[in-house]
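re: ur question from earlier - yeah i can do the single chain one, its not a big deal. heres the input i used so u can compare w yours
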Amino acid sequence: MKRYFIYLAYNGENYCGWQIQPNGVSVQETIEKALSTLLRTPTTIVGAGRTDAGVHARMMAAHFDYETANLDLPLLAKKLNSILPKDISIYNIVEVKPDAHARFDATSRLYRYYITTEKDPFLYHLKYKVHGNLDIDKMNACADILFEYEDFTSFSKLHTDVKTNNCTILAAQWEKKGNDYIFTIKANRFLRNMVRSIVGTLLEAGKGKIDSGEMRRIIEAKNRGEAGISVPGHALFLEEIEYNNDIFIQ
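and the output i got, formated as tokens:
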């Protein structure tokens, strides 16, 4: 039995999220059906993460197992693209070591959230529109506070099945481009709803409602009710996933 990584992208607008759900079509389910059809055997895939409903991915990774040797990976990728819907695209399929795991072996993940103050009839479904300008310096000052902590219970969806709410933040910064504000955050792992609730809280700083001291208080409270709202998923993109090279078959 050999193991393979699929690298793909998707627009999450028409899906209930990455993971298979009882009510709604997921990205995982859609790819599994296509892969099972081409390989002529029921095939499950395991993703590097579990993006929520409406969230997009410019780079997602998932693994699957297949017992037949000499699988033509470029041809399989091409055939998958030919039968998958237009909002899912396969970049590449590569062989990895049999114990490699798309989720647990990922060393980091990078997300970006896109906010705009401009009404745009073409990109409204990919950006979150806010009214008025935001104080980017105050938002970055509060974002810097994230590096001081590991327990992010205050930004986690309640009643999840994870063993720990500890994460290591590797990058967190806002930048302004024209009428847009873009938040980039990178960590070794993320909790459910974590990025969207962090963004919602940092927007409170941008509006002058909280400062760095209040940001610390929110994190230390370890209470989701103390943080800001969870911003909509349609403006969130999973952009990068990193792995150590030693899991790949060279």
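The mean pLDDT is 95. not sure if urs matches, ping me
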